[in-house]
User: Fold this.
Amino acid sequence: MNKGIAIYPGSFDPPTNGHLDLIERGSKIFEELVVAILRNSEKSPMFSVAERFQMLTTLTAHLKNVRLDTFGGLMVEYAKSIDATCVLRGIRAISDYEYELQMALLNRKLEPTLETVFMMPADKYSYVSSRLVREVAQLGGPVKGLVPEVVEHKLRQKLEPAYKLQNIRGIVETPRKRKKKA
Assistant:
């Protein structure tokens, strides 16, 4: 276990099984892991910061060296403010690596003492992203196995009223059967 504080920053909108996998594994590597939820006023998240904080609190309650926090602005400034020495980042694909490498190099330029550790999620979560989970859920698809059960429940709570309203208004049309050509 590395002495010191590491941060795992992200939007976590919503938290996925991939996030939880990295949090659990990261908690075994670092003395303290701060899961830092980004407050970004320029985005329109599905869940409020408070909702994401609550879900992550439930999901990480069993991890004694994991702490939750929120931040806005530059991640390196936040890291300095809590004396973090390392940033934990997940990489699912080569496209993630290219983006994350640029960010890590920029962060090193801004704060040379801050290291970045890349971790790959478990194979079964290598394709899971919050964006894809939101899209599947918004289209009424199943998210079981992609997110923890508590998150699945929160997604249903948030989206079910919209589906009911669409059905009442007749906005959602059932697919029409095509006639077979002779």
